[in-house]
Design goal:
There is one protein chain. By secondary structure, this protein is mainly alpha-helical. The chain has a domain at about 10-90. It is built from 5 helices and 3 strands; from the N terminus they run ααβαββαα. A 3-stranded antiparallel β-sheet has the order 1-3-2. Helix 2 (about 25-40) packs across helix 3 (about 60-70).
Length: about 120
Amino acid sequence: MTLQWVRLETSLPDHPKVLELINAKKHKSVMVYVLGLAYCGRHELDGYVPKAALPFIHATKSDADALCFVGLWTPTPNGYEINGWSDFQPTNEERTKAKNKAKAAAEIRWGKAEK
């Protein structure tokens, strides 16, 4: 079940890591961070951004390096992990459990399962 949305902190504009990027004139990297969140949600990647996905989120390696430098992303051998993904976004496992729970409740409610 693909996420149709991702959570975005209202404190993002004045978050110290974002301010560090802005002060370093790395405005594009801030947008890459947001696009990375959306990409991971859409593709059910639980916060993993493959290196091959950088062009699809309008990112360069320099943008990714800047995000790693301030601690928003962590490099992995084949991509990047968005730090704190599971703290703020529902994981694939959580979404599957919620979907199954809702399905079971609907089946009981509509008489398609044993009570």
